[in-house]
Amino acid sequence: MTDEQFLAERFEANRPRLQGVAYRLLGSTGEADDAVQEAWLRLSRSDTSDVANLGAWLTTVVARVCLDMLRARRSRREEPLAVEEPLPAPTDPEREAILADSVGLAMLAVLERLSPPERVAFVLHDVFGVSFDEIAPVVGRTPAAARQLASRGRRRVQGTPEDARAPDVTRQRRIVEAFHRASRNGDFAALLEVLDPDVVVRPDDAALRMGARNGWISGEIHGAEAVAQRFQGQAQGACIALIDGAPGMIWGSATTPLVVFAFTVKGRRVAGIDLIADPDRLRQFEIETVE
Questions:
Q1: Are 159 and 235 in contact, with CB atoms under 8 Å apart?
Q2: What is the CB neighbour count within 10 angstroms for residue 43?
Q3: d(Cα 171, Cα 173) in Å, to the nearest integer?
Q4: H/E element, 288
Q5: Which SS3 state, helix, strand or coil, does residue 227 take?
């Protein structure tokens, strides 16, 4: 047996799971087949000799392909695809476990209402048991942010009424607004009030390079006093925005953001801020300014 034949056999063994992932993410058997075929093409062109878990690697590839397809669909402002009939009934225990949760019309209709990152995070974690550490690079977020995406998707899928979800979003927006106001006004005491004592600011490499040019940031910042000192008087050019539906801040505009401030809120305080300036990651966000 040649190496290519061996690889093809391993791929075929994973095909049912990959089709299940792609179908749930895309709601179309035709597009799901295209995504799985693209995964095969990428596998055939890749060196996977160091890949310990080929199934997990292929699941990640298919998820990324599907995320790109969902974003392209939305960027063209297409109507959601008409949901098709579910996949045929499973023919073996493994596939039955994979497709055990409903893939019927009602589920797919709900999934169509999620943003692409929410849909990917929810489906991968809640349906297929993928860890948030593995989901994070797929959606271009930290594991904590990926968890929040899945949580928002889960609430919608479970049918939580919009007015029941509103307090969480409203509360986070008020906290972000309080941080923005205190930072813009240079109010050190107000910043300490809104920051968790163990707050962490995590810049990506692009944000570090940007901050290094003006000496503003050179690495992670830990603790409320250090974060307050760094942000005191610094938010004049920032504005409040919804980032994948969650309240945050940006420098720049919604169409051409320079830096995204992704907030993690614990209780009534800011527990973490991810500074994201990498252009590829910035293009993945859905941003809507609210000021």
A1: no
A2: 19
A3: 5
A4: strand 287-289
A5: helix
Residue 203 CB contacts under 8 Å (≥ 6 apart), including other chains:
211, 217, 219, 220, 274, 275, 277
DSSP H or E stretch at residue 274: strand 269-276
**Tokens found for residue 75:** 């960027």
Over the stretch 112-141, which tens digit does the pLDDT of each residue have?
778 899 999 999 998 888 999 999 999 988
User: What pLDDT does 211 receive?
Assistant: 76
User: Looking at this protein, which amino acid is placed at residue 150?
Assistant: A
DSSP element (H, E) containing 30: helix 29-45
Query: Considering only 41-50, 159-168, 208-217, which range has the smallest mean pLDDT?
Result: 159-168
Q: Where are the alpha helices (DSSP H) in 99-236?
A: 105-111, 116-122, 132-139, 143-157, 162-185, 188-194, 205-214, 224-231
Q: Report the run of H or E that residue 87 belongs to, with start and end.
A: none
For residue 230, give the nearest of 273, 266, 269 by alpha carbon: 273
> Residue 12: phi, psi to the nearest 5?
-60, -35
Nearest C-alpha neighbor of 128 from the set 136, 120, 116, 139: 120
Mode of pairing for the β-strands spanning 257-266 and 269-276: antiparallel
Residue 281 and residue 204 in contact, taking contact as beta carbons nearer than 8 Å: yes
Q: Which residue has the tokens 């209780």?
A: 267
Question: Alpha-carbon distance 175 to 181, whole Å?
Answer: 10
Taking the C-alpha atoms of residue 225 and residue 227, their distance in angstroms, rounded to an integer, is: 5
Cβ atoms of 282 and 254 closer than 8 Å? no
Dump pLDDT digits (tens) for 73-100: 766 644 444 444 444 433 344 443 344 3
Considering the chain, what percentage of its residues have pLDDT values greater than 70? 82
Question: Would the pTM of this model clear 0.90, i.e. be above it?
Answer: no
What is the Cα–Cα distance from 273 to 9, expressed in whole angstroms?
A: 44
Distance separating alpha carbons of residues 54 and 23, to the nearest angstrom: 20
SS3 1: coil
